[in-house]
């Protein structure tokens, strides 16, 4: 069984978030959360919250069976570019320079460890 969690409109560029996602792809959830806990980057807090949301979605999906979150691993973790806010800043000699404030959409997909072996 799979569960999906998304964080949309995160105010950081997708390029910076991809650096952090490469460390957790394909790992078990416990290992990934432990790795993110001690990383100093800004993106790790949002990635960690997204993983926690995916775990909650997994446990909520089927209430009849007793599901265990210990056997989960990260099947997919990717980030897409969101909208870019365009701002201007005064420059020398009466010009204006453009500032781009980029955003991103983070998606994390968790699955059972049984499906990993198949």
Describe the structure.
By secondary structure, this protein is an alpha+beta fold. It has helices at 14-21, 29-37, 43-61, 113-117, and strands at residues 2-10, 72-81, 85-90, 96-101, 104-112. The chain has a single domain (2-113), classed as Ribosomal Protein L22, Chain A (Alpha-Beta Complex), CATH 3.90.470. It contains four helices and five strands, in the order βαααββββα. Helix 2 (29-37) packs antiparallel against helix 3 (43-61). The chain is elongated, with a radius of gyration of 18 Å.
Strand order of the largest sheet: 1-5-2
Strand content: 25-35%
Please outline the major beta sheet.
Answer: 3 strands, antiparallel
Shape: elongated
Q: Strand-and-helix sequence, N→C?
A: EHHHEEEEH
Q: Give the helix tally.
A: 4
Specify the CATH architecture. Alpha-Beta Complex
Examine the coordinates and then state which fold CATH places here, giving the name of the CATH topology.
Answer: Ribosomal Protein L22, Chain A
Name the CATH homologous superfamily.
Ribosomal protein L22/L17
Helix content class: 25-40%
Number of strands: 5
Please identify the top-level CATH class. Alpha Beta
Given the helix and strand composition, which structural class is it? alpha+beta
Q: What separation lies between the terminal Cα atoms? A: 13 Å
Radius of gyration: 18 Å
- Are there runs of 5+ residues with pLDDT below 50, and where? none
